[in-house]
Structure formats: C-alpha cells, structure tokens
Amino acid sequence: MNNEELRKEIERLTEENVKLKQEIAKLRSVKRPAVSSMDTMSTKLKEALRE
C-alpha cells in the first residue's frame, strides 16, 4: 500500500469509529432507562407482595 491508500484507509476507519461510538452512546442511553424501570417494577412487585 502506498501513502495515499493508507491515508484513505485511516480516514475510512476513523469515520467508522465515530459512527460506532455514536451507536454505542445511543444504545447505552436506551439501556439505562430500561434497567431503572425494571428496578421500579421490582420495587412495586415487592410492595404488592408485602400487602
């Protein structure tokens, strides 16, 4: 590979890296509320079972 090909490959991989980081951030933000709602459901279930 010559220098020009390597630069293009670095540019392509850098763009892919940015896209993947954005996707990870999006998935993390989706996952967190789901976990907290599960905790809330567990708490409500525990309270209902106590009554």
TrEMBL record:
Coiled-coil blocks: 3-30
Region annotated Disordered, chain positions: 32-51
Superkingdom assignment: Bacteria
Keywords, in A-Z order: Coiled coil
Protein name, entry field: Transposase
